[in-house]
Amino acid sequence: MSFDFRYKIFCLSPSVNGRQQEKAFNTDKLYLNYGLLGLATLLSEMGHQVKMMQSDGMSLDVYRPTLEYYLERADILMVSLPSFFEIPMAQDILRFVREKYPKIRVMLGGRWTVDRNLGFIQRKFAGLIHMICRGCPDDRLSEVLAALMAPDRNRESPFVSQEYQYSKPFPHVDYKLLHDFKKYQPVIEASRGCPGKCKFCQESNYTYFKLKSTEAIIDEIESICEQYKSDDLNFYLQGAMVNPDVEWAKAFKKLYDERQLRCGLRFESRVDCLNPESVKILAGAGLKVIDFGLESASPTMLRRMNKTSNPEDYLKKAEAILSAASEVDVKCKLNILLFAGETQRTWGETMAWLRRMKAQYGNGFGGVSANPLTIYLNGEGTEDFSMQVERDSGCKVNRIELNERGYTTPDTSRDISSLKACAEAAYRALMTDDEYKYLKSISFTPRETSIEADLVEKIA
């Protein structure tokens, strides 16, 4: 389907500052909604006039002038909910839009929050939106816009799209569409989905698309460097499991050298899938940090969360990665999850292993991110997972809170008085403020800090 006319589309990503470790270390950070930017790029290439903005933790009063500037020029407002934490801010924004800009058509999407929780979303945004878009509509955007702009569309009975099938990674994104884009460190979507089946993770709901070709990623790096007018950038290769094999790593380094790149790289992978030799090779092509969902070093907990059926082999592979990273000064950040039924013994096993790794492979051990389990709404799977958590922990899940907010962080240990205190103690025991700030500086802190009062002047 094609259009004889073009729309003015404003893409908005509400966001909040809420992670406990960032509060503890008092570090500013920016998380780019690369999915919304990818859709904005596709819409722009269709000929529509598109602009995107993120609230980045600012209150509505602070960025209202900029918001009004874009809304006054928009036919369509596309709001992306990257998580349940953004719902209160999104509600405030959409109430403001309904009151001041009633003619704008509003569409809401966000696969983590929307796809399997339709009743919850309809309740939370009653009277505020014209359409709920489910799934990944990358190659169906003309169809989506036609549905949104249908003459009979209204806020009282919003249209609900089909769940569009998971698509391949975006081939490229146009950062110039993003308001004040140079303050964001760039992201390249390198893969989608994850073949893993961890019980706590929703990524396994979606089809896995493997790592893009070396040529595609190198070309995208060069394109983004041109947009930023800088070759001194750190790129986050986005994907739940970026798993370059040795041949891919060699080909990437060859192109990196041939094109005389000097950018840095960071990505997320699994310790039991990534080849240590790939780490050594990519260290010569800008690799600085790897994020690993280690989750635990307790055999009991690793089996319980379905992370692996062979914990001993899993931890040996993790150590091999840390050893390789230490040789080439690549920092590994290990994500730790205090799961259901955690005990003093299992947590002690994890902390002992982490301390040993830090002592033995200090150059490769970048730090940790530790958090208690949070349960999120996940459609029909929510109750089964909640019951499993109760069985494993002997503690109750607050279903009232879960169904009201979309998430809850239950007390999942009868043996540990405060899982939150354990997480905070892990940060302090295993990394310094400077180590934490270094990890955040690679991809997650602002490149250029804007003065909030001058936001409107930066629109051009």
Textual characterization of the structure:
This protein is α/β, with parallel strands linked by helices and about 450 residues long. It folds into two domains: about 10-170, Cobalamin-binding domain (Rossmann fold, 3-Layer(aba) Sandwich); about 185-375 and about 410-440, TIM Barrel, CATH 3.20.20.70. The chain contains 17 helices and 14 strands. The strands form three sheets. It has a six-stranded parallel beta sheet with strand order 2-1-3-4-5-6, sandwiched between helices. It has a six-stranded parallel beta sheet with strand order 7-8-9-10-11-12, sandwiched between helices. β9, α10 (about 275-285) and β10 form a beta-alpha-beta unit. The longest helix has 18 residues, at about 310-330. The radius of gyration is 22 Å and the shape is globular. The two termini are about 30 Å apart.
List keywords for this structure.
17 helices; 14 strands; single chain; disordered C terminus; 2 domains; TIM Barrel; Rossmann fold; 39% helix; six-stranded parallel β-sheet; 460 residues; alpha/beta; globular
